[in-house]
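Tokens in:
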């Protein structure tokens, strides 16, 4: 009984047992709060929703009949274990509470619209080909508004789309871990760190996901070639004020307002 290691081991045992019950209660409570936050907004993605608990630290939600271009979707709400030893391992690996949204599309992503958004402190996704001079070559840039993020893209349109979506997510207060738009299912994967409670309604996030799912399947707009000067009629050469000045209240760029796109921890089934 005079051995100090005995009291050390006893203290660790008591701390481990206490952390087990604390982890279970804390994580179940947080998962229920996030599920309640999501519940009313899931209908924006689709119908026939089912959910299943995966232990005390994870809740899976499946949407079998999607809306618009969404064929089906899955949401994984996962919390970092608060058990003493598991929490230490999870923290070393960078584990955090998270929400992962996976979407399979009816109409696949148009080639060239793929992009990746990821944390600057982490490595680039493994599938990105950075070989110069190849058709599939990607470019990677730091996000100008927040140096904590980087964007990988293959076309200017994909770069602009990624920048707009990331801006909307950050404006809504979300902490983004990764956003991937790819040519194979799941065509869209969004991973958000949920360390704190969301500041906006879940409907804004679901609208962003649905709008992005529709947009990445749209073909690129091609500029209409102008006629040679010799073929133009005298009427076409006359000035037209309606063509010289932009119309007020014209169409806005998708995602230009926070309502336009409205918009895993180690448990996440992310695919590289």
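Residues out:
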């Amino acid at each position: 009984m005079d051995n100090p290691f005995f009291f050390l081991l006893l203290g660790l045992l008591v701390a481990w047992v206490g952390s087990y019950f604390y982890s279970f209660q804390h994580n179940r409570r947080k998962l229920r709060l996030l599920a309640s936050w999501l519940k009313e907004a899931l209908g924006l993605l689709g119908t026939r929703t089912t959910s299943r608990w995966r232990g005390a630290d994870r809740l899976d939600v499946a949407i079998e009949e999607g809306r618009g271009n969404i064929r089906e979707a899955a949401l994984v709400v996962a919390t970092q274990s608060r058990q003493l030893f598991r929490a230490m391992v999870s923290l070393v690996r960078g584990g955090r509470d998270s929400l992962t949204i996976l979407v399979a599309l009816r109409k696949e992503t148009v080639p060239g619209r793929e992009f990746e958004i990821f944390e600057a402190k982490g490595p680039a996704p493994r599938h990105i080909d950075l070989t110069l001079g190849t058709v599939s070559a990607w470019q990677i840039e730091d996000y100008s508004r927040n140096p904590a993020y980087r964007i990988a893209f293959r076309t200017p349109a994909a770069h602009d789309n990624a920048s707009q979506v990331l801006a909307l997510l950050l404006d809504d207060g979300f902490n983004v871990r990764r956003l991937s738009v790819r040519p194979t299912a799941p065509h869209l994967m969004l991973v958000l760190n949920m360390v704190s409670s969301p500041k906006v309604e879940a409907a804004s996030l679901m609208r962003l996901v649905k709008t992005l799912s529709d947009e990445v399947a749209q073909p690129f707009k091609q500029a209409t070639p102008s006629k040679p000067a010799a073929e133009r009629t005298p009427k076409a050469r006359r000035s037209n004020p309606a063509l010289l000045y932009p119309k007020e209240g014209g169409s806005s760029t998708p995602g230009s307002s926070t309502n336009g796109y409205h918009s895993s921890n180690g448990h996440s089934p992310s695919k590289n």
